[in-house]
Amino acid sequence: MSNWLYRVERVFGAITRVMSVIGICFVAVMTLVTVADVVLRWSIDSPIKGAIEIVQYMMILIVFLTIPYVQYKKAHVSISLLVDKLPQKAQAVIGSFVYILSLGIIGLMTTAAFIYFRRIWEAERYTTVLGIPISPFQLILTIGLFLLFIMILLDFLHSIFEQVGR
What we know:
By secondary structure, the chain is mainly alpha-helical. It is built from 4 helices and no strands.
């Protein structure tokens, strides 16, 4: 593999690892909020105001802070039952097609997420119950998608260099 590609992968790997740790911390916070909401609802009939809203927006943070690292670790679920039985060249062609398709879809999603971020930033939109600004959550979503795009691109380049080296 090319030396520059290895260095870029390490930098983005470190960034996504830190983001993933932050995302995992939000899992703990989300769990505490949910448990506290249930306990308060059943014990004193007074749930936490906006608990559902808090959990919904934490879910955005959890998913989009962790998904680029999952791609970096190549831990996404894949079914290769049929592809593994094909010749190496056919596997490479199918793999390239999947990478290109993934880049196209994630690229479109990232673009749409960024456009939506700009709209809600300019409109100064807030959550219904607690009045929390929505734009920071949309920004995290956009950054997570962008980093997922970068990680898929790096994997694709890695596979190309691997095939050229054979």
